[in-house]
Amino acid sequence: xxxxxxxxxxxxxxxxxxxxxxxxxxxxxxxxxxxxxxxxxxxxxxxxxxxxxxxxxxxxxxxxxxxxxxxxxxxxxxxxxxxxxxxxxxxxxxxxxxxxxxxxxxxxxxxxxxxxxxxxxxxxxxxxxxxxxxxxxxxxxxxxxxxxxxxxxxxxxxxxxxxxxxxxxxxxxxxxxxxxxxxxxxxxxxxxxxxxxxxxxxxxxxxxxxxxxxxxxxxxxxxxxxxxxxxxxxxxxxxxxxxxxxxxxxxxxxxxxxxxxxxxxxxxxxxxxxxxxxxxxxxxxxxxxxxxxxxxxxxxxxxxxxxxxxxxxxxxxxxxxxxxxxxxxxxxxxxxxxxxxxxxxxxxxxxxxxxxxxxxxxxxxxxxxxxxxxxxxxxxxxxxxxxxxxxxxxxxxxxxxxxxxxxxxxxxxxxxxxxxxxxxxxxxxxxxxxxxxxxxxxxxxxxxxxxxxxxxxxxxxxxxxxxxxxxxxxxxxxxxxxxxxxxxxxxxxxxxxxxxxxxxxxxxxxxxxxxxxxxxxxxxxxxxxxxxxxxxxxxxxxxxxxxxxxxxxxxxxxxxxxxxxxxxxxxxxxxxxxxxxxxxxxxxxxxxxxxxxxxxxxxxxxxxxxxxxxxxxxxxxxxxxxxxxxxxxxxxxxxxxxxxxxxxx
Length: 649
Prior knowledge:
23 strands; Rossmann fold; Immunoglobulin-like; four-stranded mixed beta sheet; 24% helix; 22% strand; alpha/beta
């Protein structure tokens, strides 16, 4: 029976009301604080039970039911609406039981706003505001099952891609046109001098390092990340490589020492402060207004070289932390509708899903230890692809294994060691297929570098070819040739002799002045080992494919791999390829999906295949310069390794 608006409330507080607040999935809101107030102003605050909650001591007549706003919004916005085709079980639940004093229970539908004790700080989404349907009316001596409208719960999945030192997708595009112009000049119509420069692999001197590189596996992975839809809120955020900024010259402090405004640490802060929010708003511009609330944020994080260091720092900055700049940046933007009470410090609301790393190098030296140690539970999956043919002094590897020897790692981690130098793993070397004219690309993919220099003090009459330095250089060149780095060894008579393409060249560099008397003096003889060859650039697409498939296996939103894409294809431009890369890719692609293992694919490769792979596809990164000098231990050139627990400088 309806209550007249003209009735005077009875002041005898001997009436009761029973409430049972449930979501569309028929789950209770147990633990929420509800305040019930009758027409005389009598209020009772109770804690909701798993089922009906009986509240007594009211005057007969209407009662308002309100819940404490902040915790109520947090609870209500975490409850999912019925999906298409699903039917609410609340009506059947209402009919199944009788209320207090055996009264028939009544089913009432409400919105979140109808039960808020105070006005929400931020407007609620349409359909959830108070009074949008007929306002609920509650009367004493009645038992109510209150069904609260659910939310379209949405997960925001963000891929963050940290590029490596001297790598920048934007600057690659700037430099590519200049490189192709230079290649076009390397034709029979040009001067002989220019032809010789092209043959030597010379590149335009006015380009920055980052402008001379091809797009890396980080840049490519970003392009393979799925575009957003209303049902899948995917956002890809590209972070420029250490030492680089679009439209500016490369920063020497960043390149050399991971220092300054382009360092790995600053890149992480920039991503948190501005880049992620900017890309979310840009890429979801048309979708965000249709979203009721974002109840969870998931991250896929990728990095190469010092970018892998930045990726690891980012994981440690985000995981279970509520005090980083991204918290403030997201909260300050009303266009990004995080649910009420969104907690950045809990993995229920924020989770790192996948971490994909290409050959982590920290190399921050005197500028502070970087926080790159990954906890076993920092992410659902962590995969690290490591270079087996890298041994430069400044390119220490920081592994994800507990120790440097790789004896143990977390059960959700995978580390795969494959043939190749640093950028054979992370990309950046040009492939013929990256250019308009694959047939004219040889100068851009030519290696011509001094990989070792030997010296000895000799008597004045000793010819360079008879010097100990020459014998040492020849032995070293033979050793590298046997490993597959060249077709063989060529001995040159003087420094002015032209090196032979495809070979390791032993070439006298200098004859020092005679010291002492003419008869009893000595002079220093230096001999270089020069590696001059064309190296094809398709191999780095294999580790990219491995990371992408491991990420897809873990649920990361990558598009399906298309081997016919020009930037992904493995078929060689060579007439007679020495190694079938497509077959190698087929053998290796699923290895990174294996959890809790260190997998050394380089050791599995037959020597003959490894030699052919080096000859045509693997780059020799070390040389005799300061930046790329090898790390020598005794008479060996080996890489310095650091375990995950120790971290890196």
